[in-house]
Specification:
mainly beta, Immunoglobulin-like, Purple Acid Phosphatase, chain A, domain 2, 43 strands, signal, disordered N terminus, single chain, Metallo-depent_PP-like, seven-stranded mixed sheet, Calcineurin-like_PHP, metal ion binding, elongated
Length: 657
């Protein structure tokens, strides 16, 4: 009889496995607190509401917060979106256990959990709850963990302040839609505070939390003066690295929200303060602005070297231009904050509260740093200690404050006098704008600059509750359309008297692992089997050599194996187990070590090459390079096999981590 076998590789002939992160996702849930009351049965029906995706301590984390109608044990379930099939999470989905407690602003309970060990450039899906009581699935996407990015900053939505929650909600939702449609790859949504009009009004919170973007992009929340009077803000926003000591609260910690927190996202150290606590205790105890300055100092000292830029966020603008510009408490903050922020090397301060847009000159120690800096300059070059202060206008259109005129109190730290270069503005403001239209601030973070833009997200038309209720507005959709820019400036870092030299080092090419047939992948013809001892037939041959190449930097292990199916000739066949082999390395390299010999099942009653058997492999840490692999084939079959011209396929499999 004539027997043949063929080695088979589907087109294209060359197989490549790109080195990368292991396919298995690893995670660990860490309980940061233990506020859970005695849980009832997880099988009890539970309603999940108010899901919010928040920032974590860095770009590899997210914190999810939600409300629950029942005090059950709950968790986050997470999986790469590519692994979700027909809406079903895979068995490999990772869980993060939640903690929380009873709500004080309403009935029910709150929960939060931290997602960790996220991979860059990955789309994820998540849901919260428990088996049988899951929320809908939501999705978010991580970007590259290094390099340029942008984040969006939103001024006070203050849902309910117009007197019409539905109109305020519509304006807020439209701004988020406009902003994220124009910037789909934005990486953070940063809040200026005053999310709602009344701190514990859950109907207003429901309206604020209704846009889907708050479950798709991580939000960094800030406490405003309208948020601070209840616990709802804390119940809806659990923040990373938060100090909830008494000095960062105003009043009773049991009934009010508070705390300062920080996080690092790529090249920016963000520090968020509860500016509602500002009065320095007269008895010398910790608290007020002095406590905030101490907090910022400590964080910058410990973590400032880990980022290129330092950005502060708090609610009460100290350099605004409207109703709150003259507030006594903001004069106090100017005196308490500005010198410390300059000395600590803060680059930018983001604020809200005054429902108007302003961008300050570069301010050093409470004074305009460079008297020659022009109003509205497109490029700003702060010197050492120069800080840019930004105030965001309303993101919802629920309320606007009109700009006030400067007074005659001069240009000192607490003064509100005019700008000598533009007497209609306060001395500290490079740009002031109030058009009674919704807007947001986009900040592009680049290696050598920050690009700041104030962008219109609406026009005079609805949704714009304050205007709908009678406030004047003269913009036109043609002259000032949605997406048009109010202010645009580039902030350049200080490089002293020398020349700064910068180089961008990308991620190294990961290299690749691959194999191919050496030369023509022709039929491996074993010829005509020879009868041996009148009891069996035997045929021999060699596989077509296989070339392996491995240029991966990870030096990860690899293996090449193969197996055959049954030998067939029309309706006649016999088992592939009768084929054995003896692998060897023809040309050494890439750490290749030949696999063990496999006997024909005729010899050892085993399974031969009918099961996957190793041709060659390399261990972790092997040298990069290439190898040529071969194997002698040995077929032994009983002499009872019918005459025929039989064929099978050798299927080759490459594995690499």
């Amino acid at each position: 009889m004539t027997l043949s076998t063929s080695t088979w590789v589907p087109a294209p002939m060359r197989r490549r496995l790109i080195a990368g992160v292991a396919a298995g996702f690893l995670g660990m849930g860490v309980a940061l607190g233990s506020g859970l009351m005695a849980p009832v049965s997880a099988a009890e029906s539970t309603t999940i509401t108010g899901v919010v995706l928040g920032v974590g301590a860095n770009e590899t984390q997210r914190i999810v917060t939600w409300y629950s109608s029942a005090d059950t044990a709950q968790k986050i379930q997470l999986a790469p979106t590519a692994e979700i099939v027909n809406g079903e999470f895979p068995a490999s989905a990772v869980s993060f256990e939640a903690v929380g407690g009873a709500n004080t602003s309403t009935t029910g309970f709150n929960r939060h959990a931290t997602i960790s060990n996220l991979r860059e450039n990955t789309a994820y899906s998540y849901r919260v709850g428990a088996e049988g009581n899951w929320s809908p699935a939501y999705a978010f996407k991580t970007q590259d963990f290094e390099g340029d990015y942008n984040f969006l900053f939103f001024g006070d939505p203050q849902i309910g302040s117009s007197g019409d929650v539905a109109k305020d909600q519509a304006g807020w939702a439209e701004t988020l839609k406009v902003a994220t449609t124009a910037n789909p790859d934005t990486e953070l949504l940063v809040s200026a505070g005053d999310h709602v009009e009344s701190a514990n009004n859950e109907a207003q919170w429901d309206a604020y939390l209704s846009p889907e973007q708050l479950r798709q992009y991580p939000t960094a929340a800030t406490i405003g003066n309208h948020d601070v009077g209840g616990k709802a803000w804390e119940q809806h926003h659990f923040t990373p690295n938060t100090d909830r000591s008494a000095q960062y609260y105003t009043g009773d910690q049991a009934t009010r929200s508070g705390g300062d927190y920080w996080y690092i996202y790529k090249d920016v150290l963000f520090i968020d303060l509860n500016s509602n606590s500002y009065v320095n205790p007269t008895d010398g105890s910790a608290g007020g602005d002095a406590a905030h300055v101490a907090y910022v100092t400590d964080v910058v000292k410990k973590h400032g070297s880990e980022a290129k830029w330092k950005v502060l966020v708090y609610h009460h603008s100290i350099y605004s231009a409207a109703s709150h510009a003259t507030d006594a408490d903001n004069k106090i903050r100017r005196k308490d904050f500005t010198t410390a922020f300059s000395e600590l090397g803060i680059d930018m301060v983001l604020q809200g509260h005054d429902h108007v847009y302003t961008r300050s000159y570069s301010i050093k120690n409470g004074q305009k740093e460079n008297p020659a800096e022009k109003p509205g300059a497109a490029d700003v070059f702060p010197g050492p200690g120069g800080v840019i202060y930004v105030t965001a206008n309303s993101a919802s259109g629920s309320k606007y404050y009109d700009i006030k005129k400067p007074d005659n109190t001069g240009t000192g730290v607490e003064g509100l006098g005019p700008d000598p270069l533009n007497p209609n503005n306060y001395w500290f403001n490079s740009v002031q704008n109030q058009e009674h239209v919704r807007s947001y601030v986009k900040v592009q973070v680049k290696a050598d600059k920050l690009v700041l833009q104030n962008i219109r997200s609406g026009t005079c038309a609805a949704p714009n509750a304050a205007v709908e209720k009678g406030l004047s507005c003269t913009n036109t959709a043609e002259g000032q359309p949605v997406g048009s820019i109010v202010d645009n400036t580039t902030i350049h870092p200080y490089h002293a008297d020398g020349q700064a030299i910068q180089v961008n080092v990308p991620n190294p090419a990961p290299g690749e692992f691959g194999w191919t047939i050496d030369g023509y992948n022709g039929l491996v013809d074993l010829g005509t089997a020879q009868e041996r001892n009148g009891t069996y037939f035997q045929a021999n041959g060699k596989i077509n050599p296989i070339l392996v190449s491995d240029s991966r930097r990870s030096l990860a292990p690899w293996s090449i194996s193969a197996n055959v199916g049954d030998f067939q000739d029309a309706d006649k066949k016999f088992s592939g187990s009768y084929l054995g082999w003896n692998p060897y390395v023809l040309d050494g390299g890439a750490g290749a070590e030949a696999g063990a010999a496999v006997l024909s099942s005729y010899d050892d009653q085993g399974k031969g090459l009918s099961v996957s058997s190793g041709l060659a492999a390399a261990v972790q840490g092997h040298p990069r390079g290439g190898a040529k692999l071969g194997a002698d084939l040995d077929l032994k079959i009983p002499d009872s096999i019918a005459k025929g011209n039989y064929r099978t396929t050798l299927t080759i499999t490459a594995l690499s981590s």
